[in-house]
Amino acid sequence: MMFDKYLIDPATLRNTGPEGAPTGFAFEAKLGYYRGLGLSMIEKLDVSIDGEALPRDAVRFDEGEGPLSLDEMETAYDRRWPFGTPATILVERPGGFPAGEHELGLLQQLRVSYLPFPSVNTDTKTVTLAH
């Protein structure tokens, strides 16, 4: 899709948790659909490092109203992700994001009311996070 290259903002990648002992990492992402969506219509947010998928239950999403697990998003009927608005993707991962250059991947699978199939958007960025 035409917005895929804008999904991940590599400049926002950071470790989370205590300094020197990170418990995860976070980055900002944008929606790959031009109209915005209710959070319950986001079927997947798959995060990967160097092509290896991270566990679904380790991923949290925050569009500014507080973090939700992907399971919680399924019933977040009153929350939306507007087009062009960055949201924070948080990932629980002991040690945080690995040092050095790595591929950070994001796949969004979206349920769009007028499409007979899910909209799938992917982005991969080569990133380096200094520790």
TrEMBL record:
| One Pfam match | CGDB
The segment(s) forming the C-glycoside deglycosidase beta subunit domain are 3-114
Q: What InterPro entries would the database entry show? A: CGDB (IPR045959)
Identify the keywords attached in UniProt to this record, alphabetized: Carbohydrate metabolism, Lyase
What family does this chain come from, according to its entry?
Answer: Belongs to the C-glycoside deglycosidase beta subunit family.
Q: What is this protein called?
A: C-deglycosylation enzyme beta subunit
